[in-house]
Specification:
Elements (H helix, E strand, L loop, with lengths): L14 H22 L3 H21 L4
Helix pairs in contact: 1-2
């Protein structure tokens, strides 16, 4: 039995599309980096997407 202070974790149906979009954007940016080479703004965008994916992984318990 859970206490009232611990909310029951429920799968969020919005997470899979979010993860797919962020993951797809990450793949596109990585592909672009291979084609044009290193660029500071491109690397910053890739890093931000990687951070977002990590946050989503933690928030969903890796279940997306």
């Amino acid at each position: 039995m859970q206490s009232q202070s611990e909310p029951e974790s429920k799968p969020n149906p919005e997470h899979p599309p979010v993860v797919e979009h962020v993951s797809g954007a990450h793949e596109l940016l990585m592909s672009l980096r291979k084609r044009i080479g290193e660029h500071p703004e491109l690397q910053e965008a890739i890093t931000k997407l990687e951070m977002a994916l990590s946050i989503l992984t933690v928030k969903t318990g890796g279940m997306f």
